[in-house]
Request: fold
Amino acid sequence: MDHQTGPKSVDARCGPRESARMVTVFLRWTWLRAVLHNGWWLVTSVYLVVDAGLSPAELVLIGSVQSAFALVFEVPAGVIADTISRKWSLVVSQALMGTAMLATGLFTSFPALLATQVLWGISWTFASGSDVALITDELNEPGRINLVLTRAARAQLTGAATGLVLLGLLAWATRRDVTIVIAGAAMAALGLYVALRFTEHNFVPIRTARWSSSWTTFRRGVTLVRRSRAILLIFAATFLVNGASDAAGRLTQKQLLDLGLPGAPDPIVWFTALGVAGLVVGAVVLRLVTQRINGAHAATDYALAALAGVLAMLMLAFARDPVTGAIAVVLLNGIVTPLTRVISTIWVNARTTADIRATTHSFLAQLEYLGEIVCGVTISAIARLTTLPLALTACAVLFAATAVLMSPRNRRSVRAGRDL
Reply:
């Protein structure tokens, strides 16, 4: 390996047994992390509204500030994963994530909650791209990796459903702040699973001239993105759709409560049921489109998912009862979010190389954060100056713009995926 230009994956395949073991370990970790993360966020989303009493503008502002910090840390974290270690980047992510989650349950003031959410956002920068890069290199089978990533996406959905039920019931039986602290401690402990069970055989870290090699890795990633029309198109779509999804996700609970969602036995019970319903729909949708999203129909499916987002946001914005609003939430969480996320991950992963894989995925995550910042600040201002339904309508406009961007006239660029 040339230590001055960056790490190279070892050109070797794991044996069938070792390969199967690594996939199982990776899927199990993906499932467990989804259990804790999504269950925690369900309880936290209600905690922020009911216990902390944050306003719609404050809810969206938290997301924007969190994304701003994550945007700054994302590329350095990706370069670290590409030059030092993907596995230990994930361990650091778990430790920071667990700390932030645990601390959230200890405060109700806006400044303190803002700080915990910022740390939570930073923790994800050490995981985004590192997980996909690690399993791609360790498996070292290009023909199988897309299937594994799709299975991982389904594992996230089933794990999320499990987390919603388990932690939702725990919060209902005890207290929301106690549940948040328990989930955070468990997430930090999950880092031990990564440290003990994950392997990193097909990655060679840089041991000399790390700063210059890191800069070279960053520049190579930028060059790849600039020259790939397909990646640029997916990046633009990610900016729009993630900005809309994140803002909508932070306003959903407030809108449903305003529509008259029953307060008995507890709002957490209703949000748990809605979350599980959306995840079940998402798992079914991903199974149905597994082959399509790996082929020529990916752009069409992305555009259709964006159109589903338009419908969901308009239904939620102008709903007259909580039932209609609930259907809209299931549509958003069951189709729009999982489908757009897995398509963008697979397409970017297929168009990068091993030595800059985590860095390129970090660029994708940066576009997600940038969308949350720009679109989040805009929608926060709309929510503050006008009404919540108008803010949700603005989310629908962003989804519509995404559908136009991924329309058939751009399909050829995405399908080709060649460097210009």
